[in-house]
Amino acid sequence: MKKIINYSGITGLILIAALAFMPVSCSKEAVKDNPEADSSSQLIKVSGEDVSVATKTTLEGLATKWVATTDAVGIYSSQARTATGGSESPIVNAEFTAASDGTSSVFNGAAPMYWGAATSSHTFFSYYPWVAGAAAFTVVPVSLATNQTQLIANNNAHLGALDFMIATPKIVTSPGNTNPIANTEVSLRYNHVFTVLEFQITGSGSLSKVWVSGLGTLAFSDGTINIGQSTPDAGTPYTFASQTGLSSDVIVTLTTPATLGGTAQSVYMMINPNASTFTGELYIGLYDGSVWKYIKKAASPSGGFARGRKYIVAINAETATVAPTYSESSTAGTLIAGRFWAPKNVGYIVTTNPYGQLFQWGRKYGQNYDVTEGTVPTIVADPVAFSVGQDPANAANFYINGTTPFDWCTVQQASWATAYSPCPTGWRLPTTAELTALNSSGSTWVAVAGGNPDGLAGRWFGPTSGSPTEIKNIFLPAAGYRFFRSGDTRSTRGTTGSYWSSEVSGTGASGLDFSSSVFYMSASDRANGLPARCVRE
């Protein structure tokens, strides 16, 4: 294993640098729990190959390296000093820049660093890339873009600009003086924070974008990280001090579209590893310049994607299909946060009921909001047996309940049974996790929904900026609700929205709530009448 070694000379601190995603090995390692035979992960090692100086730290094959005059690291030490004598300022986010390309490079700073005291313990923290204004090592800025751009197929130079590394904290005992920090007295080893996906794509036609979507945070617009934390075990993610602008989707756009054929064209993506949270099925989208097609992967690697690995996924574009359609609308479902969402609420009728119907939790049948939408619901004064509420003859009934547990049926159900789902065949009610992911994808309130043909108030969920125009967000109208105690419709239509999940929460059921000022997950009494929005199975 190569090392990153600090040593100083006449010009001050110099670093002999070598970077490793993960230690030592370059051998392939199968993702054993992934049923796809075309998926593998590779440990990434160090190489000294030259690449374009237009990028920062670059990945070529399985190798990373420094780029001269462009790569800069930040260094902190509360014990080391900016001048000799020990009374000067400690080292805070000192910038040091690579002087040459390759595995090893001299790193030059504006001034040397000095030992703060003789024969004493000094701790050093460092990160890449250097950012001005990072005043404390506990809150170093970090982000990972949702929209990434690759110049041409098989070129991974863009990964350098997305990279982020943290050096393993180093404790060194100073010599018996306060001289400049000398040769080999401090050594640092840098660890990559993110993960690389390489899509090897064959087939026919053109390819201009690749999109990955799933449950979990794949990217984030802003955040901070404590670079003084202990280095995690291999593959285990670092802990972020904060993350905002979370996204479950990442898109790579090819500046020059690729022509697909029998030889695989590689597209590279950098993602947040989410080793503990990013699990389950994935959708991979391929865009030919006019139409999105998708491939559903049954599972991501066991435990999620590991930090510092490159995962290879071979795809035949011929097996991709267009988005599924929803039977109540000719509009295809929209892929956000790893799921295809129906474009309309259940019970939607464009002329009379654009909000859809209101459902008591667990019932197959919903009721209209008021007389203008059709049949007026019949208010029944007491809860009934589960089978009674599911009888088609009672579909128009709304069962009220003013006593705990405020359910419409006399025996509470453990789940919204599939047999009684109001969704069309091939669709279902979302889980709590799926609504949470949608809620985390970003949201914008509109009093009159731009782009929505029904002109309703409500919220757009999905990426709030930077998304290609062909990727549409999901609009949930502020549909109001029917009150469990009286059966009255509330005066909140146009100002609030509440949407059921398929899962219980205590004696209530979980759901997504929003108004013009907030949006959040909560639990609601099951006898309430709320709208329902379906996801593709």
Q: Give the proportion of residues in helices.
A: under 10%
Give the structural class: mainly beta
Looking at the structure, what is the overall shape? elongated
- Helix tally? 3
Largest sheet properties: 7 strands, antiparallel
* Terminal CA distance: 47 Å
Q: Supply the number of structural domains.
A: 2
Average predicted local confidence, pLDDT: 80
* Secondary structure tally: strands: 41
Radius of gyration, in angstroms, nearest whole number: 28 Å
Strand content: 35-45%
Task: Describe the protein.
The chain has 3 helices and 41 strands. Helices cover 3% and strands 37% of the residues. The protein is elongated. The chain has 537 residues and is mainly beta. It starts with a strand and ends with a strand. Strands 8, 9, 10, 11, 14, 15 and 17 form a 7-stranded antiparallel β-sheet that branches. Strand 24 and strand 25 form a beta hairpin. The chain folds into 2 domains: 4-322, no CATH class; 334-536, no CATH class. Residues 1-62 and 466-470 have low confidence and may be disordered.
What would the keywords be for this entry?
537 residues; mainly beta; 2 domains; 6-stranded mixed beta sheet; 3 helices; 37% strand
What does the secondary structure layout of this molecule look like, with pairings?
Blueprint: E1 4-9, E2 12-16, E3 28-30, E4 39-43, E5 45-46, E6 58-60, E7 63-65, E8 72-81, E9 90-98, E10 107-109, E11 121-128, E12 140-141, E13 147-150, H1 159-162, E14 165-167, E15 170-173, E16 186-188, E17 190-192, E18 195-202, E19 206-213, E20 219-225, E21 240-247, E22 249-259, E23 265-271, E24 282-287, E25 292-297, E26 309-316, E27 321-322, E28 334-336, E29 339-341, E30 359-360, E31 378-380, H2 386-389, E32 397-399, E33 427-428, H3 432-440, E34 443-446, E35 458-461, E36 474-477, E37 497-505, E38 508-514, E39 519-524, E40 529-530, E41 535-536
Parallel strand pairs: 5-7, 13-22, 18-26, 31-32
Antiparallel strand pairs: 1-2, 1-16, 3-4, 4-26, 6-7, 8-9, 8-11, 9-10, 11-14, 11-15, 12-20, 14-17, 18-23, 19-22, 19-24, 20-21, 24-25, 25-27, 28-29, 30-40, 33-41, 34-35, 35-36, 37-38, 38-39
